[in-house]
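Incident log, structure service

09:12 report received: a user says their structure output differs between two submissions of the same chain.
09:20 pulled the input from the user's history:
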Amino acid sequence: MGFVNRVVSFFPALKSELRIAHLPYTPIQYVNKNLKSTALQAFVFTIFFFFVLQKAKLPFLLLLPIFIILFILIFEYSLLRVKAKIRQREREIDKEVTFVGRYLLVKLYSGRPLLNALIETASSRGITSKYLKEIVDDINTGNTIEEALSNAMIYSPSDKLRRILFHINNALQLGIDVTKPLESVLEEITRGEELEIKKYGKKLNTLVIFYMLAAVILPSLGVAMLIVISSFIHFTLSLKVLSVLVFFIVVLQFIFITLFKSIRPMVNL
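09:34 re-ran on a clean worker, output below:
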Protein backbone atom coordinates (compact mmCIF):
# COMPACT_ATOMS: atom_id res chain seq x y z
CA MET A 1 0.00 0.00 0.00
CA GLY A 2 2.99 2.28 0.54
CA PHE A 3 3.92 1.82 -3.11
CA VAL A 4 0.29 2.48 -4.17
CA ASN A 5 0.20 5.70 -2.10
CA ARG A 6 3.46 6.73 -3.73
CA VAL A 7 1.99 6.21 -7.20
CA VAL A 8 -1.22 8.09 -6.27
CA SER A 9 0.85 11.09 -5.18
CA PHE A 10 2.01 11.51 -8.79
CA PHE A 11 -1.61 12.04 -9.91
CA PRO A 12 -3.09 14.75 -7.65
CA ALA A 13 -6.02 15.39 -10.02
CA LEU A 14 -7.13 11.74 -10.02
CA LYS A 15 -9.52 12.18 -7.07
CA SER A 16 -11.56 14.92 -8.74
CA GLU A 17 -11.39 13.14 -12.14
CA LEU A 18 -12.83 9.95 -10.63
CA ARG A 19 -15.69 11.92 -9.11
CA ILE A 20 -16.37 13.79 -12.36
CA ALA A 21 -16.31 10.49 -14.26
CA HIS A 22 -18.70 8.96 -11.69
CA LEU A 23 -16.41 6.00 -11.06
CA PRO A 24 -17.07 4.45 -7.62
CA TYR A 25 -13.42 4.28 -6.54
CA THR A 26 -11.05 6.22 -4.36
CA PRO A 27 -7.70 7.07 -5.98
CA ILE A 28 -5.99 4.34 -3.92
CA GLN A 29 -8.58 1.73 -4.90
CA TYR A 30 -8.43 2.66 -8.59
CA VAL A 31 -4.63 2.71 -8.76
CA ASN A 32 -4.34 -0.53 -6.77
CA LYS A 33 -6.84 -2.29 -9.07
CA ASN A 34 -5.12 -1.04 -12.20
CA LEU A 35 -1.63 -1.87 -10.96
CA LYS A 36 -2.68 -5.51 -10.51
CA SER A 37 -4.36 -5.79 -13.92
CA THR A 38 -1.48 -3.89 -15.56
CA ALA A 39 1.11 -6.25 -14.09
CA LEU A 40 -0.83 -9.26 -15.38
CA GLN A 41 -1.26 -7.83 -18.89
CA ALA A 42 2.40 -6.75 -19.07
CA PHE A 43 3.46 -10.25 -17.98
CA VAL A 44 1.33 -11.88 -20.71
CA PHE A 45 2.79 -9.60 -23.40
CA THR A 46 6.30 -10.23 -22.06
CA ILE A 47 5.76 -13.98 -22.55
CA PHE A 48 4.92 -13.24 -26.17
CA PHE A 49 8.15 -11.24 -26.53
CA PHE A 50 10.03 -14.15 -24.94
CA PHE A 51 9.19 -16.28 -27.97
CA VAL A 52 10.01 -13.38 -30.30
CA LEU A 53 13.45 -12.96 -28.73
CA GLN A 54 13.99 -16.72 -28.81
CA LYS A 55 13.14 -16.80 -32.51
CA ALA A 56 15.38 -13.80 -33.24
CA LYS A 57 18.18 -15.23 -31.05
CA LEU A 58 18.40 -12.06 -28.96
CA PRO A 59 19.44 -11.96 -25.27
CA PHE A 60 16.66 -12.63 -22.76
CA LEU A 61 17.95 -9.76 -20.63
CA LEU A 62 15.85 -7.54 -22.87
CA LEU A 63 12.72 -9.00 -21.26
CA LEU A 64 13.14 -6.83 -18.15
CA PRO A 65 13.13 -3.44 -19.95
CA ILE A 66 10.34 -4.73 -22.21
CA PHE A 67 8.24 -5.62 -19.15
CA ILE A 68 8.89 -2.21 -17.55
CA ILE A 69 8.00 -0.31 -20.74
CA LEU A 70 4.84 -2.37 -21.26
CA PHE A 71 3.86 -1.90 -17.61
CA ILE A 72 4.20 1.90 -17.85
CA LEU A 73 2.33 2.14 -21.17
CA ILE A 74 -0.56 -0.08 -20.07
CA PHE A 75 -0.88 1.73 -16.73
CA GLU A 76 -0.93 5.13 -18.46
CA TYR A 77 -3.63 3.81 -20.77
CA SER A 78 -5.72 2.69 -17.77
CA LEU A 79 -5.58 6.26 -16.44
CA LEU A 80 -6.63 7.63 -19.82
CA ARG A 81 -9.86 5.61 -19.48
CA VAL A 82 -10.92 8.04 -16.73
CA LYS A 83 -10.49 11.01 -19.08
CA ALA A 84 -12.34 9.09 -21.79
CA LYS A 85 -15.25 8.51 -19.39
CA ILE A 86 -15.32 12.21 -18.54
CA ARG A 87 -15.34 13.08 -22.23
CA GLN A 88 -18.19 10.64 -22.84
CA ARG A 89 -20.27 12.15 -20.02
CA GLU A 90 -19.52 15.64 -21.34
CA ARG A 91 -20.84 14.73 -24.80
CA GLU A 92 -23.96 13.10 -23.34
CA ILE A 93 -24.75 16.10 -21.13
CA ASP A 94 -24.06 18.68 -23.85
CA LYS A 95 -26.54 16.97 -26.16
CA GLU A 96 -29.36 17.52 -23.65
CA VAL A 97 -28.29 20.57 -21.67
CA THR A 98 -30.25 23.18 -23.66
CA PHE A 99 -33.43 21.09 -23.54
CA VAL A 100 -33.10 20.57 -19.78
CA GLY A 101 -32.26 24.24 -19.27
CA ARG A 102 -35.34 25.37 -21.20
CA TYR A 103 -37.49 22.84 -19.34
CA LEU A 104 -36.24 24.34 -16.07
CA LEU A 105 -36.92 27.85 -17.40
CA VAL A 106 -40.51 26.93 -18.32
CA LYS A 107 -41.06 25.62 -14.79
CA LEU A 108 -39.71 28.85 -13.32
CA TYR A 109 -41.88 31.00 -15.60
CA SER A 110 -44.92 28.97 -14.54
CA GLY A 111 -44.35 30.17 -10.98
CA ARG A 112 -42.53 27.20 -9.47
CA PRO A 113 -39.93 27.94 -6.78
CA LEU A 114 -36.37 27.08 -7.85
CA LEU A 115 -36.12 23.98 -5.64
CA ASN A 116 -39.44 22.59 -6.92
CA ALA A 117 -38.39 23.35 -10.50
CA LEU A 118 -35.09 21.48 -9.95
CA ILE A 119 -36.94 18.49 -8.45
CA GLU A 120 -39.40 18.31 -11.36
CA THR A 121 -36.60 18.71 -13.95
CA ALA A 122 -34.53 16.03 -12.21
CA SER A 123 -37.45 13.59 -12.49
CA SER A 124 -37.44 13.77 -16.31
CA ARG A 125 -35.39 11.50 -18.58
CA GLY A 126 -31.76 11.86 -19.68
CA ILE A 127 -28.30 11.94 -18.11
CA THR A 128 -28.48 15.70 -17.48
CA SER A 129 -31.64 15.19 -15.43
CA LYS A 130 -29.81 12.55 -13.40
CA TYR A 131 -27.07 15.09 -12.78
CA LEU A 132 -29.65 17.59 -11.52
CA LYS A 133 -31.03 14.86 -9.27
CA GLU A 134 -27.63 14.71 -7.59
CA ILE A 135 -27.95 18.43 -6.86
CA VAL A 136 -31.40 17.81 -5.34
CA ASP A 137 -30.00 14.92 -3.28
CA ASP A 138 -27.18 17.19 -2.09
CA ILE A 139 -29.78 19.76 -0.96
CA ASN A 140 -31.78 17.04 0.81
CA THR A 141 -28.70 16.06 2.83
CA GLY A 142 -28.71 19.53 4.45
CA ASN A 143 -26.70 21.75 2.10
CA THR A 144 -28.13 25.04 0.88
CA ILE A 145 -29.05 25.46 -2.78
CA GLU A 146 -26.01 27.72 -3.26
CA GLU A 147 -23.64 25.13 -1.76
CA ALA A 148 -25.17 22.32 -3.83
CA LEU A 149 -24.85 24.35 -7.02
CA SER A 150 -21.24 25.26 -6.20
CA ASN A 151 -20.35 21.60 -5.64
CA ALA A 152 -22.07 20.66 -8.89
CA MET A 153 -20.10 23.31 -10.80
CA ILE A 154 -16.80 21.94 -9.49
CA TYR A 155 -17.54 18.36 -10.54
CA SER A 156 -19.48 19.01 -13.74
CA PRO A 157 -17.86 17.44 -16.86
CA SER A 158 -19.77 19.86 -19.11
CA ASP A 159 -18.78 23.49 -19.48
CA LYS A 160 -22.28 24.35 -20.79
CA LEU A 161 -23.97 22.91 -17.70
CA ARG A 162 -21.40 24.63 -15.50
CA ARG A 163 -22.28 27.99 -17.07
CA ILE A 164 -26.00 27.41 -16.47
CA LEU A 165 -25.40 26.48 -12.83
CA PHE A 166 -23.08 29.48 -12.38
CA HIS A 167 -25.70 31.97 -13.59
CA ILE A 168 -28.39 30.38 -11.38
CA ASN A 169 -26.08 30.41 -8.36
CA ASN A 170 -24.92 33.96 -9.06
CA ALA A 171 -28.53 35.18 -9.29
CA LEU A 172 -29.37 33.50 -5.97
CA GLN A 173 -26.40 35.10 -4.25
CA LEU A 174 -27.31 38.53 -5.63
CA GLY A 175 -30.95 38.02 -4.65
CA ILE A 176 -32.33 38.68 -8.14
CA ASP A 177 -34.78 36.79 -10.35
CA VAL A 178 -33.21 33.59 -11.71
CA THR A 179 -35.22 33.47 -14.95
CA LYS A 180 -33.50 36.39 -16.74
CA PRO A 181 -29.87 35.18 -16.27
CA LEU A 182 -30.95 31.61 -17.11
CA GLU A 183 -32.70 32.73 -20.30
CA SER A 184 -29.67 34.83 -21.26
CA VAL A 185 -27.16 31.99 -20.84
CA LEU A 186 -29.44 29.56 -22.72
CA GLU A 187 -29.62 31.96 -25.68
CA GLU A 188 -25.83 32.31 -25.56
CA ILE A 189 -25.37 28.51 -25.53
CA THR A 190 -27.88 28.13 -28.39
CA ARG A 191 -25.97 30.66 -30.52
CA GLY A 192 -22.76 28.78 -29.78
CA GLU A 193 -24.36 25.50 -30.85
CA GLU A 194 -25.58 27.09 -34.09
CA LEU A 195 -22.00 28.17 -34.84
CA GLU A 196 -20.77 24.63 -34.05
CA ILE A 197 -23.30 23.18 -36.52
CA LYS A 198 -22.22 25.62 -39.25
CA LYS A 199 -18.55 24.75 -38.70
CA TYR A 200 -19.47 21.07 -38.73
CA GLY A 201 -21.24 21.50 -42.07
CA LYS A 202 -18.15 23.11 -43.62
CA LYS A 203 -15.84 20.39 -42.27
CA LEU A 204 -18.28 17.70 -43.42
CA ASN A 205 -18.34 19.03 -46.98
CA THR A 206 -14.54 18.85 -47.17
CA LEU A 207 -14.40 15.39 -45.61
CA VAL A 208 -17.10 14.06 -47.95
CA ILE A 209 -15.00 15.12 -50.95
CA PHE A 210 -11.95 13.32 -49.53
CA TYR A 211 -14.12 10.32 -48.69
CA MET A 212 -15.49 10.09 -52.22
CA LEU A 213 -12.00 10.32 -53.69
CA ALA A 214 -10.10 8.06 -51.28
CA ALA A 215 -12.75 5.49 -50.32
CA VAL A 216 -15.02 5.27 -53.40
CA ILE A 217 -13.52 6.57 -56.64
CA LEU A 218 -9.85 5.57 -56.22
CA PRO A 219 -10.57 1.98 -55.05
CA SER A 220 -13.12 1.47 -57.85
CA LEU A 221 -10.87 2.88 -60.55
CA GLY A 222 -7.84 1.13 -59.08
CA VAL A 223 -9.47 -2.30 -59.15
CA ALA A 224 -10.84 -1.70 -62.67
CA MET A 225 -7.43 -0.59 -63.97
CA LEU A 226 -5.74 -3.50 -62.22
CA ILE A 227 -8.09 -5.94 -63.94
CA VAL A 228 -7.48 -4.32 -67.34
CA ILE A 229 -3.70 -4.21 -66.91
CA SER A 230 -3.59 -7.81 -65.66
CA SER A 231 -5.38 -8.95 -68.83
CA PHE A 232 -2.64 -7.36 -70.98
CA ILE A 233 0.36 -8.68 -69.04
CA HIS A 234 -1.25 -12.07 -68.37
CA PHE A 235 -1.21 -11.49 -64.61
CA THR A 236 -3.79 -13.43 -62.62
CA LEU A 237 -5.38 -11.69 -59.66
CA SER A 238 -4.99 -14.11 -56.80
CA LEU A 239 -7.31 -14.39 -53.84
CA LYS A 240 -4.53 -13.06 -51.62
CA VAL A 241 -4.22 -9.82 -53.66
CA LEU A 242 -7.99 -9.29 -53.64
CA SER A 243 -8.09 -9.94 -49.89
CA VAL A 244 -5.43 -7.26 -49.31
CA LEU A 245 -7.40 -4.79 -51.42
CA VAL A 246 -10.64 -5.53 -49.56
CA PHE A 247 -8.86 -5.20 -46.20
CA PHE A 248 -7.39 -1.84 -47.25
CA ILE A 249 -10.83 -0.56 -48.32
CA VAL A 250 -12.44 -1.73 -45.05
CA VAL A 251 -9.74 -0.03 -42.97
CA LEU A 252 -10.17 3.17 -44.99
CA GLN A 253 -13.94 3.08 -44.45
CA PHE A 254 -13.46 2.56 -40.72
CA ILE A 255 -11.03 5.52 -40.53
CA PHE A 256 -13.50 7.85 -42.24
CA ILE A 257 -16.42 6.66 -40.07
CA THR A 258 -14.36 7.30 -36.94
CA LEU A 259 -13.35 10.72 -38.28
CA PHE A 260 -16.97 11.67 -39.03
CA LYS A 261 -17.99 10.72 -35.48
CA SER A 262 -15.08 12.57 -33.86
CA ILE A 263 -15.85 15.94 -35.50
CA ARG A 264 -19.58 15.77 -34.79
CA PRO A 265 -20.57 18.67 -32.50
CA MET A 266 -21.94 17.87 -29.07
CA VAL A 267 -25.47 19.02 -29.90
CA ASN A 268 -28.64 17.30 -31.04
CA LEU A 269 -28.70 17.73 -34.83
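09:41 both user submissions now match this output. Likely a transient worker issue. Closing.
09:42 reviewer note: The longest helix spans residues 179-232. The CA atoms of residues 208 and 256 lie 9 Å apart.
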